[in-house]
Amino acid sequence: MRKVAVALLSRLEVNSPAHALVEGVDLVVVRYTESEVSVLYGRCLHRGALLADGFMRGRNLICGVHDWDYRVESGVSEYNNSEVLPKFESWIEGDEVLVDRDEIAAWGLEHPQPFDRDEYQGAYADIHGTPEEPATKLIHALAKGGIEGVGHHGPVSAMGVPPTDLPRWDDL
Q1: pLDDT digits over 115-141, tens only?
Q2: Which of 14, 42, 67, 145 has most Cβ atoms within 10 angstroms of its Cβ?
Q3: In 10 A of CB 46, how many CB atoms?
Q4: Residue 89 contacts residue 95 (beta carbons within 8 Å)
Q5: CA–CA gap between residue 26 and residue 40 (Å, rounded)
Q6: What are the boundaries of each domain within the chain?
Protein backbone atom coordinates (compact mmCIF):
# COMPACT_ATOMS: atom_id res chain seq x y z
CA MET A 1 0.00 0.00 0.00
CA ARG A 2 1.24 3.44 -0.95
CA LYS A 3 -0.55 6.21 0.89
CA VAL A 4 -1.11 9.54 -0.81
CA ALA A 5 -2.84 12.66 0.51
CA VAL A 6 -5.77 13.90 -1.55
CA ALA A 7 -6.86 16.79 0.67
CA LEU A 8 -6.32 18.58 3.93
CA LEU A 9 -9.24 18.06 6.29
CA SER A 10 -8.95 21.64 7.56
CA ARG A 11 -9.50 22.96 4.03
CA LEU A 12 -12.50 20.79 3.20
CA GLU A 13 -15.83 22.47 3.86
CA VAL A 14 -18.58 20.17 5.11
CA ASN A 15 -20.85 19.14 2.20
CA SER A 16 -18.69 20.82 -0.43
CA PRO A 17 -17.21 18.41 -3.04
CA ALA A 18 -13.51 18.78 -3.85
CA HIS A 19 -11.49 17.40 -6.77
CA ALA A 20 -8.38 15.23 -6.53
CA LEU A 21 -6.40 13.41 -9.21
CA VAL A 22 -4.50 10.22 -8.40
CA GLU A 23 -2.83 8.04 -11.05
CA GLY A 24 -4.84 9.75 -13.80
CA VAL A 25 -8.16 8.97 -12.08
CA ASP A 26 -10.46 11.83 -11.11
CA LEU A 27 -11.72 11.62 -7.55
CA VAL A 28 -14.28 13.58 -5.59
CA VAL A 29 -13.56 14.11 -1.91
CA VAL A 30 -16.51 15.01 0.31
CA ARG A 31 -16.36 15.86 3.98
CA TYR A 32 -19.95 15.08 4.95
CA THR A 33 -19.62 15.53 8.72
CA GLU A 34 -16.98 17.19 10.86
CA SER A 35 -15.05 13.91 11.07
CA GLU A 36 -16.23 11.79 8.11
CA VAL A 37 -14.89 11.91 4.57
CA SER A 38 -15.77 9.90 1.47
CA VAL A 39 -13.58 9.48 -1.61
CA LEU A 40 -15.45 8.37 -4.72
CA TYR A 41 -14.73 8.11 -8.43
CA GLY A 42 -14.97 11.72 -9.54
CA ARG A 43 -16.92 11.36 -12.81
CA CYS A 44 -20.67 11.13 -13.19
CA LEU A 45 -21.66 7.79 -14.68
CA HIS A 46 -24.18 9.51 -16.95
CA ARG A 47 -22.01 11.75 -19.12
CA GLY A 48 -18.64 11.92 -17.37
CA ALA A 49 -18.96 15.38 -15.81
CA LEU A 50 -16.67 16.18 -12.89
CA LEU A 51 -18.61 15.60 -9.69
CA ALA A 52 -16.44 18.09 -7.83
CA ASP A 53 -18.35 20.69 -9.89
CA GLY A 54 -21.59 19.39 -8.37
CA PHE A 55 -23.17 19.94 -4.98
CA MET A 56 -24.66 18.14 -2.00
CA ARG A 57 -28.40 17.71 -1.40
CA GLY A 58 -28.90 16.06 1.96
CA ARG A 59 -26.65 12.96 1.92
CA ASN A 60 -26.53 12.86 -1.90
CA LEU A 61 -23.77 14.11 -4.14
CA ILE A 62 -25.51 15.70 -7.14
CA CYS A 63 -23.95 16.08 -10.58
CA GLY A 64 -24.10 19.73 -11.55
CA VAL A 65 -24.83 18.98 -15.21
CA HIS A 66 -27.89 16.68 -15.25
CA ASP A 67 -28.73 16.26 -11.55
CA TRP A 68 -27.72 12.59 -11.23
CA ASP A 69 -27.40 11.58 -7.59
CA TYR A 70 -25.06 9.37 -5.56
CA ARG A 71 -25.15 8.67 -1.82
CA VAL A 72 -21.98 10.16 -0.41
CA GLU A 73 -21.31 7.28 2.01
CA SER A 74 -21.60 4.49 -0.58
CA GLY A 75 -21.67 5.90 -4.13
CA VAL A 76 -25.01 4.17 -4.80
CA SER A 77 -27.59 6.25 -6.67
CA GLU A 78 -30.70 6.86 -4.59
CA TYR A 79 -32.76 7.21 -7.78
CA ASN A 80 -31.34 4.12 -9.55
CA ASN A 81 -29.59 1.67 -7.22
CA SER A 82 -27.91 -0.07 -10.17
CA GLU A 83 -25.78 3.05 -10.75
CA VAL A 84 -22.84 2.90 -8.33
CA LEU A 85 -19.80 5.16 -8.22
CA PRO A 86 -16.71 3.28 -7.09
CA LYS A 87 -15.77 4.19 -3.53
CA PHE A 88 -12.12 4.12 -2.53
CA GLU A 89 -10.74 3.40 0.89
CA SER A 90 -9.81 6.60 2.68
CA TRP A 91 -8.75 7.62 6.15
CA ILE A 92 -7.63 10.66 8.07
CA GLU A 93 -4.19 11.00 9.64
CA GLY A 94 -3.62 14.30 11.38
CA ASP A 95 -4.93 16.88 8.91
CA GLU A 96 -4.47 14.74 5.80
CA VAL A 97 -7.13 12.75 3.94
CA LEU A 98 -5.32 9.72 2.55
CA VAL A 99 -6.07 7.07 -0.05
CA ASP A 100 -4.25 3.97 -1.24
CA ARG A 101 -2.51 4.95 -4.48
CA ASP A 102 -2.19 1.26 -5.46
CA GLU A 103 -5.94 0.67 -5.12
CA ILE A 104 -6.71 3.61 -7.39
CA ALA A 105 -3.98 2.70 -9.90
CA ALA A 106 -5.35 -0.87 -10.14
CA TRP A 107 -8.87 0.47 -10.68
CA GLY A 108 -7.54 2.84 -13.34
CA LEU A 109 -5.91 -0.06 -15.21
CA GLU A 110 -9.22 -1.94 -15.26
CA HIS A 111 -11.11 1.20 -16.27
CA PRO A 112 -8.90 3.25 -18.61
CA GLN A 113 -9.86 6.91 -18.52
CA PRO A 114 -10.88 8.36 -21.91
CA PHE A 115 -9.94 11.92 -21.01
CA ASP A 116 -6.93 13.51 -22.70
CA ARG A 117 -6.14 16.46 -20.46
CA ASP A 118 -3.76 17.91 -23.04
CA GLU A 119 -6.54 18.26 -25.63
CA TYR A 120 -9.06 21.07 -25.96
CA GLN A 121 -11.74 20.43 -23.33
CA GLY A 122 -9.90 17.19 -22.56
CA ALA A 123 -10.99 16.97 -18.94
CA TYR A 124 -14.58 17.76 -19.94
CA ALA A 125 -15.09 15.59 -23.02
CA ASP A 126 -18.42 13.77 -23.15
CA ILE A 127 -17.45 10.12 -23.30
CA HIS A 128 -20.88 8.77 -24.19
CA GLY A 129 -22.81 10.74 -26.79
CA THR A 130 -26.40 9.76 -27.42
CA PRO A 131 -28.82 9.46 -30.34
CA GLU A 132 -30.79 12.31 -28.73
CA GLU A 133 -27.76 14.59 -29.07
CA PRO A 134 -26.16 13.53 -32.36
CA ALA A 135 -24.27 16.78 -32.89
CA THR A 136 -22.16 16.65 -29.70
CA LYS A 137 -19.05 15.34 -31.47
CA LEU A 138 -19.48 17.85 -34.30
CA ILE A 139 -19.85 20.72 -31.83
CA HIS A 140 -16.63 19.67 -30.10
CA ALA A 141 -14.83 19.37 -33.45
CA LEU A 142 -16.03 22.81 -34.52
CA ALA A 143 -15.03 24.33 -31.17
CA LYS A 144 -11.59 22.79 -31.50
CA GLY A 145 -10.81 23.33 -35.18
CA GLY A 146 -13.35 25.76 -36.61
CA ILE A 147 -15.52 25.38 -39.69
CA GLU A 148 -12.59 24.93 -42.08
CA GLY A 149 -12.79 21.15 -41.80
CA VAL A 150 -16.45 20.94 -42.79
CA GLY A 151 -16.83 23.59 -45.50
CA HIS A 152 -18.08 27.16 -45.48
CA HIS A 153 -21.75 26.10 -45.20
CA GLY A 154 -21.08 23.67 -42.38
CA PRO A 155 -22.31 20.10 -42.56
CA VAL A 156 -24.86 19.72 -45.33
CA SER A 157 -26.31 16.97 -47.48
CA ALA A 158 -28.47 16.68 -50.60
CA MET A 159 -26.66 19.32 -52.68
CA GLY A 160 -26.20 21.94 -49.97
CA VAL A 161 -29.48 21.64 -48.09
CA PRO A 162 -29.01 21.42 -44.31
CA PRO A 163 -30.21 18.06 -42.93
CA THR A 164 -32.72 19.81 -40.66
CA ASP A 165 -34.52 21.20 -43.75
CA LEU A 166 -34.85 17.83 -45.46
CA PRO A 167 -37.93 15.61 -45.04
CA ARG A 168 -37.54 12.69 -42.67
CA TRP A 169 -39.05 9.21 -42.98
CA ASP A 170 -41.22 9.97 -39.99
CA ASP A 171 -42.72 12.90 -41.93
CA LEU A 172 -44.05 10.64 -44.70
Answers
A1: 888 877 778 766 556 666 666 667 767
A2: 42
A3: 16
A4: no
A5: 9
A6: 3-110
